[in-house]
Amino acid sequence: MGRETSGPLRLLRETHEERVLSVLRTRGPLTRAQLAEQTNLSRATLSSIVQTLLSNQALVERPEHTLAEQAVRGRGRPVSVVMLNPAGGLALGMDLGQRRIQVTISNVAHEFVASGAVACAERTPWARRLQLALDLVDDLTTRHDVSLTALAGVGVGIVGPVPVGADSAGLVRSDRIALVRDTLRARFGVPVYVDNNTRLAALAEAVWGAGSGVDSTLYLRLSYGVGGGLVLGGRLFAGAGGAAGELGHISVNRDGPSCSCGGRGCLERYVSLTTLQAQCNDILDARDEKARDLVAEAGTRIGEVLAAACNTVNPEVVVIGGELAETGDHLFKPLQAALRRYTHSQVHRTVRVTRAALGPDAAARGGIALVLTTSPPGTEWRTALDQEAVRP
Ligand SMILES: [Zn+2]
Description:
Helices cover about 45% and strands about 20% of the residues. By secondary structure, it is of the alpha/beta class. Bound molecules: zinc ion.
């Protein structure tokens, strides 16, 4: 079959190819039907483009289910998925958390190839945290025989606010962020993306966890701090300053206690584990009546704040993570009741509230997702296609 080798048609075809590659890089393996929906391309156009990308080995095709799963599904043609060629590159995710360093490595086809964690003391200096993370990278690549020569980028989650444009604008100079970025750039020679680790957990939940397959996810993490993130169309929404989704700092009481953010009466001051444990030691113990009452009260407050956020964003899914989510219905029932009471009917009819699905490696996975959604796809396939196009 001939390819359009010049002019607008060639350009259009390249644009479509980029769209297919970009969707697969962001979303991971998809069936052809899902890919058609995500790219808005007609079945005929998509089919021709996928065929070209498969023959150039930019993509590979695999059965969606294992043989055992197919046996359960019974008759019918086995469904296959197309994905980026796993040999196309790797992404490295890191979470430099408060008490834990996590490193996770995946290929561009969304297959996780190595993952590990080490504990660290709460006030460990940033240079030391980085060293622990780099030692862990060495250990994992050696143990799993992974070569980082085809590394596309590094995504790093850190504690605390990460302003957008902190580097370029020169408005906010953060030594912590600069140290992380410069050290990792020097070590790996690839783009390094840094964001707050709760926001990265939000991105990971949207790509691989409880928000997988939906277009808009609002994430709230209820731990010693209260943070969140908003993921729209598979991408982390930053906002003008990088603080979008900071649900913990919405004020619920104008006369309340002052907060580290400069505000007063922030949600975090009422429902963080730090605050709740000061009132009841065993706050996560469902057999403790006082704990149950406090958790229910927190659930109502959280539901009220989420209602305002949901009326603003109208997300498909609200994902709740962090230790407090482990109290289950004691938290979720009053939370959902408040959410129903204070949202527009159009909003609460379409929203689903659910517990986070990923484990403690969520933020490191989010670092990988940040690389895959931010860095441009490799140019090697484009070059291969160009060479093919000029052949007679
Ligand atoms: Zn605050």
